[in-house]
C-alpha cells in the first residue's frame, strides 16, 4: 500500500507540484512546495529524475538537488529510504533512524562547493564536520513520531551504507 506524499497526509497544504529549478548543473528534478503547521518545506523524490533531465548531465542528480536546497536556505533534511539490510535481526517494517553512515561513493564529486567552483559559480567555502552526521533533535523527533505512528520496532541507532 502506498501513500501519496506529501498531499495525502493530514494537515499538509500542497502549494505547487512539479516545480523544476535551474541549477549550474542543469534542471532539477520536479519539487513539490508545501507546508504543515506553519512550517514550509520542499519535497523531492531523489530518484524522481526524469529521463529528459538525466540526459542533460547524468551524474549530477545529487548536486542539482543539494544546490536547490542550499539556495532555498534549507537547514534540516529528512531522507527516506526503503531498503534491505545485512542485519538478519531486522524484520520488514522495522524503522531504523541511523546515527552513522559509510560512504561507498567513488565516482561522484565529494563536495558541492568544489563542484560549484568548477562550474565558475562563486560560493563561500564551507567545511562540514561529520563526527555527528545526523541532527540529534531531529532524530529524536523521528523516533518518537515512528513510535507514535504505531511501528512495533523502532531503532534509534544504525549505520547506513550509501
UniProtKB/TrEMBL annotation:
Nucleoside phosphorylase domain: residues covered: 68-160
Gene3D superfamilies: Nucleoside phosphorylase domain
Any single GO BP term: nucleoside metabolic process
Coiled-coil zones: none
A family per Pfam: PNP_UDP_1
GO molecular function: catalytic activity
Annotated protein name in UniProt: Nucleoside phosphorylase domain-containing protein
